[in-house]
Amino acid sequence: MKPIRNSAKAVIIQDNKVLLTKNQDRDGYFYLFPGGGQEHGEELSEALRRECIEEIGCAVIVDHLLHVREYIGKNHQFAEWDMPIHQVEFYFQCELEQIPASFEGSGPDENQVGVEWIRLQELEQIRVYPHKLVPILQQRVQAPCYLGDTN
């Protein structure tokens, strides 16, 4: 049995746009919030800063916790290949220390093909995970911190 994995994610919003990593799979493009897995002995905020350097090539200032999401692979449309995955993701409000001319991470994820600013009102038109965050970000309302097992 695989252990439960913790992951720290950055919610970076500026000028009504959110910064996301662009990824590609057999179904086309999809978008994720920058961030990734926590290593043993590493605080979530440290993991998030490290992962943002790797994925977007930028240092971030980590602010407060916004949301917690669980992803239990066997319960979702990707169960075929995600069956053993159980991940708990912690979404933090962040800001970029500096805005670069272009985004180039030092170690992007395997399926990552880029980094893009996406207008909040356009999030419904793309495949973004977790999708449950889309209306919360668009409406800028106070939402429950725990989102549950969602894709």
Would you give an account of this structure?
With 151 residues, the chain is α/β, with parallel strands linked by helices. Helices cover 16% and strands 42% of the residues. It has 3 helices and 10 strands. The strands form 2 sheets. A 5-stranded mixed beta sheet has the order 5-1-7-6-10, covered by helices on one side. Strand 2 and strand 3 form a beta hairpin. The longest helix is centred in the N-terminal third of the chain and has 13 residues. The chain is globular. It starts with a strand and ends with a strand. The mean pLDDT is 90.
Provide a brief overview of the structure:
The chain is of the alpha/beta class and 151 residues long. The protein has helices at 44-56, 79-82, 133-139, and strands spanning 5-11, 13-14, 17-25, 28-32, 35-37, 60-72, 86-96, 112-119, 128-129, 146-149.
Which strand order do you get reading across the main beta sheet?
5-1-7-6-10
Helix and strand composition category: alpha/beta
Secondary structure tally: strands: 10
For the CA atoms, what is the radius of gyration? 15 Å
The proportion of strand residues reads 35-45%
Reported for the largest beta sheet, the result is: 5 strands, mixed
How many helices? Answer: 3
Mean pLDDT level = 90
First-to-last CA distance: 22 Å
- State the order of secondary-structure elements, H for helix, E for strand: EEEEEHEHEEEHE
Uncertain segments are none
Protein name: NUDIX domain-containing protein
Cofactor: Mg(2+)
Organism: Paenibacillus apiarius
Pfam families: NUDIX
